[in-house]
Design a protein that fits this description.
By secondary structure, this protein is mainly α. 66% of the residues lie in helices and 5% in strands. Bound molecules: zinc ion (ZN).
Length: 116
Amino acid sequence: MTLLPLLTTERAKCGHYASKSYIDEHGGLCRKCHSNFAAILQLEKTRGEDALVEYWYSMILANLPEDKEQLSCLISHLVGFYEQKLIESPSRQKYIAKMLYMLRSIEKPFDPEQLR
Ligand SMILES: [Zn+2]
């Protein structure tokens, strides 16, 4: 029965599809978005906070790759994640606030049109 997997598949909050149990266990993300999220956390863990700040800064400068939709899902997931961290780890407040600022500026890029 090839149709069977479809029956248990659900739309994740990123808009992609995955099995319901996977989505439930991974903060509402599909497999691909969750692996992106995990890669970001891994980068933070292995290379440190500065490396991550540099990473996002270069993403801002790069003006974002093709797959905007997928990135915006990841960004909004990260914003939620760091907002939670901000409450949980006050000692890292400065770093987390910086991250949130960068993530939000990726979410809502500067629009010169607004100055007119
Ligand atoms: Zn996804």
